[in-house]
Amino acid sequence: xxxxxxxxxxxxxxxxxxxxxxxxxxxxxxxxxxxxxxxxxxxxxxxxxxxxxxxxxxxxxxxxxxxxxxxxxxxxxxxxxxxxxxxxxxxxxxxxxxxxxxxxxxxxxxxxxxxxxxxxxxxxxxxxxxxxxxxxxxxxxxxxxxxxxxxxxxxxxxxxxxxxxxxxxxxxxxxxxxxxxxxxxxxxxxxxxxxxxxxxxxxxxxxxxxxxxxxxxxxxxxxxxxxxxxxxxxxxxxxxxxxxxxxxxxxxxxxxxxxxxxxxxxxxxxxxxxxxxxxxxxxxxxxxxxxxxxxxxxxxxxxxxxxxxxxxxxxxxxxxxxxxxxxxxxxxxxxxxxxxxxxxxxxxxxxxxxxxxxxxxxxxxxxxxxxxxxxxxxxxxxxxxxxxxxxxxxxxxxxxxxxxxxxxxxxxxxxxxxxxxxxxxxxxxxxxxxxxxxxxxxxxxxxxxxxxxxxxxxxxxxxxxxxxxxxxxxxxxxxxxxxxxxxxxxxxxxxxxxxxxxxx
Length: 504
What we know:
Layout: H1 8-16, H2 28-31, H3 56-79, H4 92-101, H5 103-119, H6 123-151, H7 160-166, H8 171-181, H9 185-214, H10 218-248, H11 252-270, H12 272-281, H13 289-308, H14 319-325, H15 329-340, H16 353-362, H17 367-383, E1 407-408, E2 411-415, E3 418-422, E4 425-429, H18 432-440, H19 442-445, H20 451-456, H21 465-472, H22 487-497
């Protein structure tokens, strides 16, 4: 007789069969010591439902096929000098920001999901977390390979691991993932699997990949497409985590709500980097940050929380504040980077008149009133040979590690400043959200490695700017400062003047 072919559900059952045995020679709590201390109560691990049920043999075949297609496109892009088809040389700074600030966090996610896959005693989430761990490792590898082509021509890409660990503004994404990975396994799953992957990831990857396509960067678009099926599984894992926990025991609800509030606000602060990229760093614009926030959080996130309301879960605390800040966050972040790009690993510039008019159209209630006058002043100073650099060290928020640049809710003319005291030491915050997070876990956040504090303590190469930049491995006048007149701009202009095909 011909053996009957097993269906997907049956093959998945065979994959996980026997993996959830009860130990007899060691207590289960000793084998899995981390999934109870957070207070989460699980009555039935077998209730976990994995909609994909992807077996390992299918996983490897599926991923291998995507690898073949991806590297074929990357080879073709390199052989045809695809970098000359970009919309403008300024665009490469988006890749520098992504490679230094986001790609290393893919590796952090890989490590975090590997840990969760080992320490969750339920077989369903264990297999799902292990597969996502493999996905995240693949993502960082494909991103590095994709952007390695640009490293042959443009500056600021070669030392990305060191910059990620040391440069002041990159402590923002790094601290986000350090915070998540030093939490328990359930909080990690909420932080990354739900808050980041399901609730906020569209605000990162959709604008980034759309911007890459619109600006002629087909190699980056290809790795985005290659990762998209993985992201679909990640989002499914994120929503399954939240529903599984809320269905298991009513005592889980307040714990989960607290985590959702925390990680929404931390994610909102982190995504200010993407807001700046969308509104200021893409030569050809896709949409404004405010428009993206309305689509992917207000509408999509609002519908999600309407669905989750049946479990008693409400919208994240300060969601209304984050929505109001969508009018301001990109302008405030770009103004900061413009002032401090002499100590950064990428270039900044002032938007020209056409760009400012676009910003006026997209932000009719705020840009002309609060930001255009300052930007026009800085542009005029630049014309007069007095390009403005801020030579001071900014005070950092003790939670998100961003400088204290944000304004009071409802008052864009006043800097928001909050503080609290813990064990005779005073700590400062950029918002009520960051203050709340700190006060809930002060023992954790007092251990934060705050870059400005470390510079002042002499732990960053030395007391002078040149010594700090050398420790950052930033080449002065090459990797940093104003784009106009930089080696990157000169190379781009040489290509254009030589008649190299460059996208208009």
